[in-house]
## 1
Amino acid sequence: VQLQASGGGSVQAGGSLRLSCAASGGTFSRSAVAWFRQVPGKEREFVTAIKWSGHTFYADSVKGRFTISRDNAKKNVYLQMNSLQPEDTAVYYCAADERVIQSALRLARSYDYWGQGTLVTVSS
């Protein structure tokens, strides 16, 4: 599976952005897809994930503000980010793998396929 993340940009606190993760090849419809984010000097942090079934998982820090969704026909996963805060500033990566078990969805090492990352900057 090849992944292409897009939609990043610069917004003010309280604003919104919608990230997209476009997939090609592989068995996307059976894959779990996740978003992680990373700031310099820190480990990649789990943000959210969606199973092939549509079941979703969120980090506590984004619950109620971010929404992940998928369109298997278009091979896309979306991350709608509302009420953005400066601490949401990071490079956001999408990741996919069809072998991830539910207990490991929040672990970056569970995913073999990664997009290139898209930068989100939130100013106060």
## 2
Amino acid sequence: QVQLVESGGGSVQAGGSLRLSCAASGYTDSTYWMGWFRQASGKEREGVAAMSTRGRATHYAGSVKGRFTISQDNANNTLYLQMNNLKPEDTAIYYCAATSKLGPVLMAATYEYWGQGTQVTVSS
């Protein structure tokens, strides 16, 4: 059973930066992708970024491309999301997710395991 614990959320002003971390345990060789999702109040959960655990392939939502960077530290089983030039519309609860299924990597339904989420609030 994969367990995921996010940290690093907080409140920043527009233009600021935050780095989210996701500590993973129960990680297996069959885990193919890890990703970050977010859910704003009253909206559906959306994929932000995803990364292959078997290489360095990455995918980003168009709204964050060039501002967010996903990375992983395999030695410490930790996934990161560096968020720069944050905008008020980035305000949401951010979730870390992992999956051993194959499917669209920015689609929530592809993922089997989820963290509890961390709040990111960006003020204008």
## 3
Amino acid sequence: QVQLVESGGGLVQAGGSLRLSCAASGRTSSRYAMGWFRQAPGKEREFVAAISWSGGGTRYADSVKGRFTISRDNAKNTVYLQMNSLKPEDTAVYYCAADWRGRVAVLAAEYSYWGQGTQVIVSS
């Protein structure tokens, strides 16, 4: 079992930046790939970014490419999502997730463990 806790969300003006963190605990010896997803009110949960265990492989949703950067520090069991040039449409609850099979997946169904989420609100 892996427990994931997100932090770093908040209220920011359009054009601003936030850095989300996701701390993992429990069975962190496995080589998990990690992903970030988001869900806005009334919408489906959508893929944002994912990263391999080594950090050498990353994937991004088209809507965030060039603005968001996913990274990880395995010594700290933490994954980050640096979000720059934020837009009102980025407003959502952001979730991190872990895939024990180590695949850099875009489908939520591929991930075994999920955090509780952190709210990001971008004002115009």
## 4
Amino acid sequence: QVQLEESGGGSVRPGGSLTLSCAASGAIYSGGCLAWFRQTPGKEREGVAALYTGTGATYYAEAVKGRFTISQGNGANTIDLRMDSLKPEDTAIYYCAAVFNYLCGLDIDFGYWGQGTQVTVSS
């Protein structure tokens, strides 16, 4: 089993920045795809950004390109999501997701999910 621990959510004014972190632990025997998704009430969950730990390849949703940066964190299976120039429409619960095979992207099936962390962008 794999556990995902998220941290770094909070409230910020428009134009501000936040960094989310996700650490995967447990039965991990290979590189994998770690990603962030977000969801607001009444809307479907949407992919935000993903990173394949084996190669460092990254994937972004169009809505966040140029504003968000996903990167590997301090641990082998840790990722950070730096969010700059935040907008009110970025307000959502952000979920970390992971899958450990050779696939990565925002349109693949993820087998593991975190509990979610709230991000609120408001003046």
